[in-house]
Every structure is written in structure tokens, then in C-alpha cells.
């Protein structure tokens, strides 16, 4: 890895981590576009990297803080996590079969929909 790549990874990691703890986003919303545009990763690489780096910090440090504050409904989280596990497996299988240009457009549309909903709902 070059020094530029290492610095880029440090910046992406810190920004995604802070935003994840602050507003609950970081993986797909922050890291994937930055991996693609700033580090030149393919869409498939960026999505895989995002999933890989979220595992340790999200499953321990961030969840620990929210648990300590009593902000996690564990029954609901269990139901969603089981289905998320199944959906993640299916979704990754599908994503790896889709052309990267199409996948990038799908990702962008999803981000746009979420952004518009956040901006225009009360």
C-alpha cells in the first residue's frame, strides 16, 4: 500500500466511525462511495470492504454504548438480526452477479431515496 492509500484509509475509517456513532451511519453510506471515488476500488470491492470493517466495531464498541444507555430493544434487534443475516447472504450473492456499473447506479438510487426521505419528512 502506498502512503496516500494508508492516509485515505485512516481518514475514511475515522470519518465513518464518528458518523456511525453519531448518527448511526457509516458503512454503506460513507465508506462505499469513499472507497470507490477516493481509493479507486470497484463497487464489489467497496461493498465487501465496508461489510468486513463494520463487523468488529459495530458489534462491540458502538453497540456497547447504546446498550449502556438503554437504547436497544433486544427482542426487536434479535428478530431483525436473524433476517438481516439471511438477507445479507442472499443480497451479497445477488450483488456479485450484477454488473458493477448497474450496482453502482442501484446504490446511488438507494442513497438518493434515503436522503430525500430524511430531508422531506418531519
What would a concise description of this structure say?
The chain crosses the membrane at residues 6-39, 46-66, 72-90, 102-120. This protein is 84% helix and 0% strand. The chain has helices spanning 3-23, 27-39, 43-68, 74-95, 100-120.
Give a verbal description of the structure:
Belongs to the 4-toluene sulfonate uptake permease (TSUP) (TC 2.A.102) family. One of its GO terms (cellular component) is plasma membrane. The protein is mainly alpha-helical. It has one domain (9-120). The chain has 5 helices and no strands.
Index terms:
single chain, 122 residues, 5 helices
Write the SSE topology.
Layout lengths: L2 H21 L3 H13 L3 H26 L5 H22 L4 H21 L2
Helix content: over 70%
Kindly report how far apart the N and C termini lie: 45 Å
Number of helices: 5
> Number of folding domains?
1
Shape: globular
What percent of residues are in strands?
A: under 5%
Mean pLDDT: 88
Gyration radius, in Å: 16 Å
What string, H for helix and E for strand, traces the elements in order?
A: HHHHH
Q: Which structural class fits the helix and strand makeup?
A: mainly alpha
The count of strands amounts to 0
How many strands, which pairing sense, and closed or not: the largest β-sheet? none
Low-confidence stretches: none
Family: Belongs to the 4-toluene sulfonate uptake permease (TSUP) (TC 2.A.102) family.
Protein name: Probable membrane transporter protein
GO cellular component, one term: plasma membrane
InterPro entries: TM_pro_TauE-like, TSUP/Inactive_protease-like
